[in-house]
Each structure stands twice: as C-alpha cells, then as structure tokens.
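## retry 2 of 3
previous attempt timed out at serialization; input unchanged, resubmitting
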Amino acid sequence: MFGAFRPTPTTLGGLLWKVPWKLSVTRKANARARLKKVDAVIEAVRASGVQCGSLVKALELPKEHEMPAKDKYTVFSAKAKGYRKGIHKVPKWTRLTLRTNPKGF
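## retry succeeded, writing output
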C-alpha cells in the first residue's frame, strides 16, 4: 500500500481526465460560434482581394449554415461502430478543420 508502488488516482480509476460521451449544449454552441468566426475571417480575406492557395481551399469548404448537424458535431472514423465519432473525441479538435467527410458518410 505504501512505498514506490502505491496506487495513484490513474491506476485506481482509469483515466484521470474523462471525455464525456456526448457534447453538452454549451460545447455545441461554442463549436457553432467557432465555425461562424472562421467563416467571417475567410470572407474578410476574400473581400480584401488577396489571392493564395489556402484561400482557394478555404472557399471550397462548406459554411456553418450549409453544414448538417451530423457534420458539425461528428467526424468520419473507420474504427467507430457507425463510422462516426463525436468531434470532441478528436485530439485538438478546436484547432482543426473538420468540415468535410468522405462521400456517403
């Protein structure tokens, strides 16, 4: 019980930081707001007249209001049961562009 091999919170209960199985209403609202802010930045860069490859790729992405809820809150995963998993299960999901998925999924 005591000494070098005493149990720690991680070994007693599994992972110390648990990930909820679904997004809360607040986290969904924050995700939508984040998508809208990114859309506003893309539109501002487009309106400025700057031309670059990144802008061309960004303009091909769907806007927040064009995306179905399934694409806003879930992403394709080949290992998941229904080939979808919650967007919050993706590492660093707030910094990644996860707007597109394979056709049919």
